[in-house]
Amino acid sequence: MARAYRLVARPTEVDHGHPFVVSDCQQQLHYHLTRFSKFAIKSRTFATVRGYLYALLPYFTWLDTDSRQVQAQRHWQEPPEQVRFAVDDYLTQHMRCQIGEHPLGFQMVYRTGKTPAEVRTFLTALKCFYKLMKLNGYYSHPNPLIDSSAKIFTALEAETDDANQIPRMPDISGVEKPSPRKRLTDSYFKLESEEWVPQVIDNPDFYRLILEAGRQLPNWGLREGCVTRLLFESGGRISEVVGVTLEDWMKLGLKQEISTFSKRSRGRRVKVLRFSNDTAKLLRRYFNTERIKFSPDRYTLSDYQEKARLKQVDLSEVPLFLTMQRTPFSPQNYRDNYWKPACDIAGIEADLHQARHWYVTSAIRQIYAIAGANHGEVERLKRTLQQYMAWRSDDTIKAYDHFFDSIAHAKIQDAVHQQMDWDLNQRLDSAKTEPPPAFEVHTQVSVPGSLNLPEDEDFDYLRRIGG
Fold first, then answer.
1. pTM of the predicted model, to two decimals?
2. 261 and 270 in contact (C-beta within 8 Å)?
3. Distance CA 108, CA 188 (A)
4. Which of 29, 276, 299, 367 could tie 458 with a disulfide, CB 3.0–4.6 Å?
């Protein structure tokens, strides 16, 4: 008997409208979680819904297997107070959080050193689950993840504004200064506010180590080399890299650029990934040699160009990367069968998304190297990086600034420590009379030396990896 909830993505040849099928601990269909996936996909991306389900399944498994919950006969369809008791227990016991009641009645959730990173996703997913269950008639009570008093306080706050005041223009108009007031969340479990910090691997050899380790895998080929290089050289997400088609590359000349979608564009091509000339050559080689073995029509790039010219083929239906089963190469396939084994060989513990962070970190180093002490030029180049990465706000680039600020302060500390050591040695060695050397403090971030890679990434373009 299975002792955990599981999900399976709907096969493409099956048309029941549910993107995922969820089974419970008895390997029986969990109707409501399966229905949730269908409701949620209408307003969210496939990856978001999958992430929500992955965050929810451990909780539902825990409800069915934890002795305390089983004894109390807890169930997700209970009234809000009982659901909140269960969520409180799960957060403290399973996710190692600390819970404190706020004077206004809601619960503050504080992370500890043992709290997993997905606690925020869990709370968001569970709130969304109850919202959709209630909306579609499967939950008869108020949403237990919503603080009912929040609306009252929001209304009272609004009444404090001067009734005779001229209505404000929206912040985005630029006519007025943005309001300093933040929107109050209506969540019953409010996670402590914190600033997002990028998970940076500040190792210039990260790229080389992954490539060298990957080449030791028996199933590593040109396809995996191309995908890995694209990730590090362009800063694209794995879904943006493996999800491209031949049309995305061919319409930009089969050179060093490829158009792709972004996280929230729902398949629309809204950004361009740029990579090195060596990677472009490797990509053409992969397409004409390794890929052609699994291509249903066995066309080369030249064949496709001619067929497209004669309007005999739709290039938007031709995946750039194929599996041995002639299906599109998926992010999960690359992550499980190539990225993780390569990290194990290299002795590196790294999430796939950290390749993106590594790119951004490298790009910002190049910005400081190019602009030097010219603050205006630094800010201008950062804006080009932000545009390339398609970040919606300045917050992401500021998060990386904090990382580099810590490096700059470390240099100041090194100078302080050097001065302290010299002063101490002067007292211990009375014969020494020479003044200390000038201690120069450079707050400009240093640039790593050449990586000496066979595949040099092209840093002439500015690219981003965060988010």
1. 0.53
2. yes
3. 8
4. 276
